[in-house]
Amino acid sequence: MSKISAAITAVGAYVPEYVLTNQILETMVDTNDEWITSRTGIKERRILKDEGKGTSYLAIKAAQDLINKKGIDPKDIELVIVATATPDMKAASTASYTATEIGAVNAFSFDMDAACSSFLFGMSVAASYIESGRYKNVLLIGADKMSSIINYKDRATCIIFGDGAGAVLFEGNNEGLGLQDEYLRSDGTGRDFLQATYGGSSYKLTPEIMEQGGQYAFQEGRTVFKNAVSSMADAAQKVIERNNLTTDTVDWFAAHQANKRILDATGNRVGLAPEKVMMNIEKYGNTTSATLPLLINDYESKLKKGDNVIFAAFGGGFNWGSIYLKWAY
Ligand code: UT7
User: Fold this and answer.
1) Which of 6, 252, 287, 326 is most buried by a 10 A CB count?
2) What is the average pLDDT across 222-249?
């Protein structure tokens, strides 16, 4: 019997309607369109404004988009993973609520958090369940309502992040398509440079802390930038080399959309032609766990069966890595 590989067989996505443009941000903090565009490549991002709606709302919409496009019966889904850094609640997983709402009543479900690498690491987990033969399919959703942990008075973070969700279905493949290899790493010393500190078990969220904006995410942008470029390029190069690929035989580079300059520099270091570097950051900003599925959703019509796609991500923790996947349809 040939080995089962884990292939992506469907994609779906959702972004909220409200568009937060650079021009609107100019009225909120001391910034301008020229600075944001030249330093990040971002023109606008989507924000989920509706009171009481959280990450599950985005995840459910993305999953429903996939279900409708693929025409699958949600009752046939066996596992639902929600990759997110902004769950609806601290306890009661966002994935369980999402699974029930989409009608995946025969599935088990859980959340996964590795900050901006949540979806990349989720691909590894989803693929392992398929490769082991234990489950036939896994619905992996990357969803984040970043606006829930962003301080719209802090120009260093509020210009970057947006809300959104994307979903992929992993299924078994007998043609050798799907996930081929991965190189995933973590370094806990990196958390000093990118974190949302308060409200977890170490640091209590008090009214005084909230007054100082302690509930929000902060980052030391330059340090994160440098580490993101070197770590993603290093991981991607390792995966390319050990699979005997070349910059010619790599068809696409799908990397976490954190900053256009990070993407340009990483693609450059790896030696990839700019047209192979997928990019949609101008429309959505950094949506954390949602950037990779939103990216492949936008490029779905250009992807061809057998294409060699190199994924890469870097995020808070620090967590980073690269995955080599052969596109299956
Ligand atoms: O998903 C993973 C997590 N995040 C990332 O990967 C993000 C990584 N970092 C970055 O993308 C960039 O570091 C930023 C976009 C956050 C910042 O860009 P930068 O080129 O690293 O700028 P900087 O922080 O070095 O600041 C340069 C200048 C400073 O002014 P001075 O000190 O030179 O006078 C900042 O105060 O730009 C100023 N500045 C701004 N000016 C206008 C910082 N933010 C803004 C702003 N508008 N929004």
Assistant:
1) 287
2) 97
Q: Ligand 1 pocket test: pick from 225, 266, 295 the residue with the most ligand atoms within 8 Å of its Cβ.
A: 225
- Catalytic position from the list 22, 137, 173, 256: 256
Whether 131 and 5 have beta carbons less than 8 Å apart is answered as: yes
1 — pLDDT class (breaks 50, 70, 90): low
Q: Tell me if residue 116 is catalytic.
A: yes
* Residue 151 falls in the annotated catalytic set: no
CATH of domain 179-326: 3.40.47.10
Distance 259 CA to ligand 1 centre (A): 10
Residue 3 has pLDDT above 90, yes or no: no
The domain made up of 5-176 is a member of CATH 3.40.50.1820? no
Question: At 151, which amino acid appears?
Answer: N
In this structure, the dihedral spanned by the alpha carbons of residues 103, 109, 112 and 117, taken in order and rounded to 10 degrees, is -50
Q: Is 224 in the pocket of ligand 1 (CB under 6 A)?
A: yes
Q: Model confidence over 58-70: pLDDT tens digits?
A: 999 999 999 999 9
pTM exceeds 0.90:
yes
Instruction: Assess whether 158 carries a catalytic annotation.
Output: no
Q: Which pLDDT tens digit goes with each residue over 248-295? A: 999 999 999 999 999 999 999 999 999 999 999 999 999 999 999 999
